[in-house]
Design brief:
Largest sheet: 5 strands, parallel
Number of helices: 8
CATH architecture of the largest domain: 3-Layer(aba) Sandwich
Strand content: 15-25%
CATH topology of the largest domain: Rossmann fold
Length: about 220
């Protein structure tokens, strides 16, 4: 049974999350402020943290800063903030995914399952298979419907960054730094161009991507 730490100062939402998560088979620990969250994380050793950004004592990014030196599990941020800068700041601070309030509980549970699969090491498997393609991370080879697809080194670097973190939202800045280097962290048009190329080569319908998905203004995710 996976243990989830829910950090939110809204008692109604915390109760709804506790009921929903327990019904889905999770063990739940609650914290209503940032300092309690850091204490509970150290004491209870959760597998995943759901973290609200707007806490009464600490900002959510401060809680992330306190968690990330030692907590290696996934952190999913919840927030009513609509500014994309807040979302990007949370991702840069170490969040693995971001869900805006109000949200659908079914979608939230799906995001949790994807993050926990990542935490259990599925992304470290050398071969990733979907209904339409197979990605061999060791051989650096992609086949779509049985046919080998040739990728440029940059296309491969971008694809492998996403595939190694299935279901996880990866921020634009992180992708740019990983693939092109720190000097390119503002060149977001690079991502648009190369993602379009990957979709043309890999997606069954590039206009409606199934696997390589965009979170506008934030980043991208690979959904197996």
């Amino acid at each position: 049974m996976s243990r989830v730490l829910v950090v939110d100062d809204d008692p109604q939402l915390s109760r709804a999350l506790r009921i929903t998560l327990r019904a889905a088979g999770y063990e739940v620990v609650n914290a209503a402020d940032g300092r309690t969250a850091l204490h509970e994380a150290a004491e209870e050793h959760p597998d995943l943290v759901i973290l609200d950004l707007g806490l009464p004592d600490l900002d959510g990014t401060e809680v992330l800063a306190g968690l990330r030196p030692w907590f290696t599990g996934p952190v999913l941020v919840l927030s009513a903030r609509v500014d994309s800068h807040d979302k990007i700041a949370a991702l840069d601070a170490g969040a693995d995914d971001y869900v805006s309030k109000p949200f659908d509980m079914g979608e939230l549970l799906a995001r949790l399952r994807a993050l926990l699969r990542r935490g259990l090491g599925e992304a470290d498997e050398p071969v990733v298979r979907t209904e339409h393609m197979t990605i061999d991370l060791v051989a650096k080879r992609v086949t779509v419907d049985g046919a080998v697809v040739r990728l440029t080194p940059t296309e491969w670097a971008l694809l492998s960054e996403l595939v190694r973190a299935p279901g996880r939202l990866i921020g634009q800045r992180q992708l740019l730094q990983s693939v092109w280097g720190p000097a390119y962290e503002k060149e977001t048009h690079y991502l648009r161009v190369y993602m379009a190329q990957l979709r043309r080569k890999l997606e069954p319908d590039p206009a409606r991507p199934r696997y390589l998905q965009t979170e506008p203004g934030m980043g991208y995710r690979f959904t197996p």
